[in-house]
Amino acid sequence: MWNEESDWIGSFDSQLARLAECRMCSRDRGERPDATGMDLEVLEVAEEGSYGRVFRCLDIHTGALVTMKQITMVRLSQGVPAPIIREVSLLKELHHANIVKLLRVGLTENRYVNLVFEHLDYDLHHFIVNRGYPKDALTVKSFMYQILSAVAYCHSLKVLHRDLKPSNVLIDHSKRLIKLADFRLAGEFADDLLYTEKLGTSWYRAPEILCDSRQYSTQIDLWSVGCIFAEMVIGQPLVQAINCRDELEGIFKLLGTPTEETWPGITKLMPNLHIYYPKFDALGLETFVTDLEPSGLNLLSMMLCLDPSRRISAEAALKHAYFIDVNYVSLLLL
Amino acid sequence: MPLHHHLFLEETKMAHRYPKPLLDTLYCLEDHIHWEEEEQVDYNEYSNTTTTNTNSSNVVLLEHDLFWDHEELPSLLAKEHQNQLSNTLLQNNLVLASSREEAVEWILKVNARYSFSTLTAVLAVNYLDRFLFSFRFQNDNNDNNNNNNPWLTQLSAVACLSLAAKFEETHVPLFIDLQLEESKYLFEAKTVKRMEILVLSTLGWKMILVTPLHS
Fold first, then answer.
1. Which superfamily does A122-332 belong to?
2. I want to staple B44 with a disulfide (CB 3.0 to 4.6 A). Which of A19, A71, B49, B97 is the partner?
3. B27 inside domain
4. Helix axis angle, A219-234 to A294-303, nearest 10°
5. How far away is chain A from the Cα of B84, in angstroms, using its nearest Cα?
6. Entry's SMART domains (chain B) (predicted)?
7. Helix, strand or coil for residue A177?
């Protein structure tokens, strides 16, 4: 009896395995359930992270360059991890001209989820570094409008990006087209990101996250966009600290240490605020961000507002006077 | 007929889940008052005022109310649309219709056992119907395939409920615990895992009916 039952289980499990493999083949026109067998020629490893790796690849059928993000799955005894299901499902729902397109998803039973994205040749970080910075005011405005359009779209779907920074803003150089990339994994991976002390990771992080608040929302992305805005104008990150505490101090030096009046709720969020941080008076954004027209400076100040509840939304930002001539900008660039 | 039976089960479950007084509030004509009340509570919390138990109770009630109003209806409508698609399939295959009915009943039992949300059940049934439809379409030339594998629908149900729970719930039971409810088959973890992969690939990773708040 025991042997008989065991044979039966083994038999239909094997049958199911063949069925799964056959389905994946027919579904993806020859895609194999293998880490590298997705009809892609791997050209180089572009990035390595704790969650997996990023490859530059060539699509064998179309000849197009693509980016493949290979995510390592953990705790496989209980099937596909929940964060991956949520994240990939989410990416599948994002359809916007300014968001990088997820072309297809490949799965291997053993270890990886392979996400294949369209490839763009450049990112805003390299754009700023290699060109000094885009002094062209119209380019800054066009880029800002596209970034905010993508963010407003995501927020309308109640999706947060969580990790907006210049290297996650891709550029189709010939068209001056912006596409947001690298939506971070949510759930159990979020904590890893929140507390990473890697250099540069805290420079675009909203003060409510730097305060270790677990209650945050769409406003965190607007702070990041504000930091990107300032960086495009001045050619370097606004506050370049080596850890979260120093980043927060740099922000307070710039905008003033918050009080219950300027940020209602701050004394509850940070009871020891005035023990750990000196009481700075605001230096003012205009001191640091020169060469930005007054309406741009006004918009920037509404993005870099310490109090999340008073920070401007992406949707409202798109209607700001700074963008009053955006159609002309688009026409000029085309 | 199976559809009516399914809806009846769901209505019974609804009535059981929400006590009558709460159900009455769903038909309250003064929704704006509840809304204002919630705003006041938020403002108080924001001003660091102590929140009374009464306010907490109201907030909980309102959350249920809002959840029902804002999420259940669109998802139920989406499910109905999906069922129109699969209803044709079921009419042409009585054996499949029967096993689907059993699978749906099983999903509802497990959903109730673990106090999963209604949305989890809706998602699971949606995944199951889309999967069976797609699978049937691909195997149209071999009618005997499903008849020879009655376990396939039940295994699909386990995988679909697991995927729905992973998507929607904060805590998901182990595969083995998920199958404590009575059914003809008990599947190994690695088998359910493979079926999860098959379902995800078949549905093209389109697992969202209603976009939840993603944080």
1. Transferase(Phosphotransferase) domain 1 (1.10.510.10)
2. B49
3. no
4. 140
5. 23
6. CYCLIN
7. strand
> In terms of residue numbers, what domain contains B201?
72-140+147-214
In chain A, ranges of CATH 1.10.510.10 domains:
122-332
B176 in contact with A, Cβ within 8 Å: no
For residue B63, being part of any structural domain is answered with: no
What do you get for the CA distance between the two ends of chain B, in Å? 40
Two tokens at A328?
């002309």
Residue type, A24: M
Question: Does A13 sit within 8 Å of B195, measured CB to CB?
Answer: no
SS3 B3: helix
Picking from A90, A56, A85, the residue whose alpha carbon sits closest to that of residue A70 is A56
Q: Does B1 touch chain A (CB under 8 A)?
A: no
B16-B20-B26-B28 Cα dihedral, nearest 10 degrees = 170
> A57 — contact with chain B (CB < 8 Å)?
no
Per-residue pLDDT of chain B (215 residues; tens, 9 = 90+): 344 333 433 333 333 333 333 333 333 333 333 333 333 333 333 333 333 333 333 333 333 333 334 444 455 545 445 554 555 555 566 666 788 878 998 999 898 979 999 889 999 999 999 898 776 555 554 444 444 467 788 899 999 999 999 988 887 888 888 887 667 788 988 789 878 988 998 898 888 764 343 33
Provide the domain count of chain B.
1
Q: Which of A111, A130, A123 is nearest to A53 (CA)?
A: A111
B80 inside domain: yes
**How many CB atoms neighbour CB B47 within 10 A?**
10
Count of beta carbons in the 10 Å neighbourhood of residue B206: 13
Looking at chain A, which residues constitute the CATH 3.30.200.20 domain(s)?
Answer: 2-118
For domain A2-118, give the fold.
Answer: Phosphorylase Kinase; domain 1 (3.30.200)
- How close B164 gets to chain A, by Cα (Å)? 9
How far apart CA A119 and CA A93 sit, in angstroms, is: 19
Sign of CA dihedral A218, A102, A36, A57: negative
Distance CA B55, CA B58 (A): 5
**What phi, psi does A122 have (nearest 5°)?**
-150, 160
User: Do A80 and B193 lie within an 8 Å CB cutoff?
Assistant: yes
Identify the DSSP state of A216: -
Q: Taking Cα atoms as reference points, which of A130, A84, A133 lies closest to residue A107?
A: A84
CATH number of the structural domain spanning residue B109: 1.10.472.10
Do the domain assignments include residue B114?
yes
